[in-house]
Amino acid sequence: MTIGIPRAGFYYKYFPFWKNYFEALGFDISVSPKSDKIMIEKGLKAAQSESCYPIKMYYGHLLALKDKADILLIPQMNEHKMGKGRRGTATFFCPYFVSLADMIMSEFPKFKVFRPIMDFHDNKIVSEPWINFGRSVLKKSLTEVDHAVDKAMKMQFNFEKRMQENDFFSSEEAFDESSTASRIIKPKIALIGRPYMIFDEYTSHNLKKRIESFGYSVVSQENISFGIQQAILSKINENEKQHWYLTNQELSAFYYYLLDKDVKGMIYIIPFNCGPDFVLEEFTINKLKKKKPITKISLDENTSSGAISTRLEAFFDLVKK
Amino acid sequence: MKLTSYPALYNYVAFKVMLRHLGINFEKPPLFDEETFRFGHANSPEYSCMPYKVYLGLFKKAAESGFDGIFVYGTRDIRACRYVELFTGMERKLRKLGFNFTVHLWGGYGAVDSLKRLSKLAGASYFKTIYATMLFMKVISASDKINSLANKMRPREKNSGKIDKWLDRWQNKLMDVRKIREADKLYKAAVDELLGIEVNTKKKIKRVAVVGDLFKIHESYMHFDTIRRLAKLGVEAKQSQPFSILFYGISKIPSKKFKQFKYYQELSKPYLKSVPCSYIDVGLGEVISQLKDGVKGVVHFQTFGCMPDIMMRPILDKIAKDYKVPIMHFMRDVETQDSQYQTRLEAFVEMLK
User: pLDDT confidence of B337, banded at 50, 70, 90?
Assistant: First the structure.
């Protein structure tokens, strides 16, 4: 049986876990191709016009996968908890990614969908939902499921370590254990935004290469370890912290790269109609851009490459001053 | 300290009673108008949702009118949509503009934490705070019941406007409640008076379910006063997600309302397995319950940028298809005129069997 994983959404963060879990239990994996114009257009037609750009992209990838896989994987991204008991704090994933499977199953009742729960505690995936899923839905023995979860956890940990300790930009480069990162040259530009926006070459208009063409290397929030992110967040004013896990990651990255002398400027990518990101833009970016050049690029299906080039040229004029 | 709240669903009636008991000066919120709307739109980030824009304008008006802050019910968990950011964002914006304005979020921290917060805000003993909370619960229940009766009777009234006058009068009277027993007595007196209002019992009334995310479905300004508009077209609609049901449900207070809350959640489960943001599971459950009870259509009121509504839309389509009833989705953005909505609503009502 083949499990279809859309190359969209949290694929860019948790693919190693999903891949190793299902492969260890004897399933084949099929990942949708890289984004292209036709695929995104299909997504635009299928999704609601008011939804955010990443959800439209997700629909495009799902449609590209539907005939290549027996079952589609749409995990339910729940909460990211820190600390113990009621005093522990939690941040959350965007509501779309919590209830995405419900939306998809209402719109495409014929799709077969696996929807295991992704919960996190102290930055580790909570294993219990995956053990229950393996036992009750996949009908595997406890030993098999335990082994699969252990392997998946280990590979996810290795991937995150490789991302943070080496000089990979895109998480896709780091998925392959045998790949090596090119040495990051100085000076650097921080490209901060949702992983599913900045790592998708088509959607991001290949911003990484464009930035490199100006003589800078590129880093993102994914290159900062979770411990450092938490240390930064602990020093930030309570009111500035966000309800959202990814937005908090972005927030800590802005403060981290603000103090990094090798980082000469920061580019913030906001997908069209992204609910969580708007507050960060209003209250953090506008404050920090007085201290270091920051530009915001809003991306949607109509953004032209020409417009991005103009923005980048203006941004680098500011950086070089 | 002089506080207010948003006008949503007469929430302020119960807040007033509770906070007065605790010695806090609380007054009715100001009214929405074109200027509040324009200010909110002009001063909000590009991708902020409609409720952010609408409330920012209203709270700026409140700050200008001498209020020191707002008191609203809060939530901080997975259901919070961007609720917390909404209010902290508004507070920071208003402070930037030079207003010393504070947002007091109550609830959403669990019963004990909420009690502590309220007690600290008022500088009152826990005993007094518990009594004030009980007053709040009684009054919010009575307020919702009065509102619900008005919604039922409005399409049937013989003289237009009588029901709304009755509703306003009794909501105002509820604001004077000082003891727990008074709320029930007032409700009974309100019902007695309602029985004296002339209604057309022979009029054929159609029924529809009206649904949407909390912010707009609780705020008649936000949803172009859908329930009253429908009443004028001879259609009865219930108030979706009444605040008392949500309060008892969220707080897990053993009661009929808590059971109802759980019942709605159960009804929504075939369509919604995740714990969603906002209370769209309760909203969907209410729709299913009303469809089982024979309503002839569903009106889904959305506003631009609202994530819960976007999530709700395909699920509602599936429900409407399963129950074979027409559904109307209406998306309001800053440019939408109420005349556009009226036209859509009239066309929809004509479709009802």
Answer: confident
Q: Which residue of A has its CA nearest to B93?
A: A283
Say whether A103 and B274 touch across the interface (CB within 8 A). no
Contacts with A272 from chain B: Cβ below 8 Å: 47
Would you say A207 and A176 are in contact if contact means Cβ atoms under 8 Å apart? no
CB contact under 8 A, A90 and B84: no
Name the CA dihedral angle for A195, A197, A202, A205, rounded to a multiple of 10 degrees: -110
Q: Which residues contact A148 (CB under 8 A, 6 or more apart)?
A: A20, A21, A22, A24, A25, A130, A134, A140
Q: What are the tens digits of pLDDT across the range A265-300?
A: 999 999 887 877 767 777 788 889 889 999 999 888
Instruction: Kindly tell me if the per-residue pLDDT of A85 is higher than 70.
Output: no
Rounded CA-CA distance B160/B232 in Å is: 9
Q: What is the ipTM of this complex?
A: 0.89
The Cβ of residue B199 has, within 10 Å, a number of other Cβ atoms equal to 18
The residue ranges of DSSP E strands in chain B, in sequence order, are 2-4, 25-26, 69-73, 102-106, 206-211, 235-237, 298-303, 327-332
Q: Is the CB of residue B7 less than 8 Å from the CB of residue B219?
A: yes
By Cβ distance, the residue of B82, B88, B92 closest to A275 is B82
Cβ of A92 within 8 Å of Cβ of B80? The answer is yes
pLDDT tens per residue across span B228-264: 999 999 999 999 999 999 999 988 889 999 999 999 9
Angle at B54 between CA B38 and CA B303, to 5 degrees: 110
Chain A residue at shortest CA distance from B279:
A95
Say if the Cβ atoms of A243 and B307 lie within 8 Å. no
A127-153: pLDDT as tens digits: 999 999 999 999 999 999 999 999 999
Say whether residue A317 is in contact with chain B using an 8 A CB cutoff.
no
Lowest mean pLDDT among A89-93, B35-39, B225-229: A89-93
Q: Give per-residue pLDDT as tens, A197-255.
A: 999 999 999 999 999 999 999 999 999 999 999 999 989 887 778 888 999 999 999 99
Question: How far is residue A157's CA from residue A153's CA, in Å, rounded to a whole number?
Answer: 6
Between vectors from CA A126 to CA B113 and to CA A136, what angle results, nearest 5°? 115
Residue A131 neighbours by CB distance under 10 Å: 16
Task: Give contacts of B110 with chain A, Cβ < 8 Å.
Answer: 86
Q: How far does A284 lie from chain B, in Å, by closest CA?
A: 11
Contacts of B85 in chain A (CB under 8 A): 242-243, 276, 279
- Nearest to B82, CA basis, from A115, A202, A277: A277
Q: Sort strands A263-271 and A188-193 into parallel, antiparallel or unpaired.
A: parallel
Quick check: A43 and A53 in contact, CB under 8 A?
A: no
For A13-48, write each residue's pLDDT tens digit. 999 999 999 999 999 999 999 999 999 999 999 998
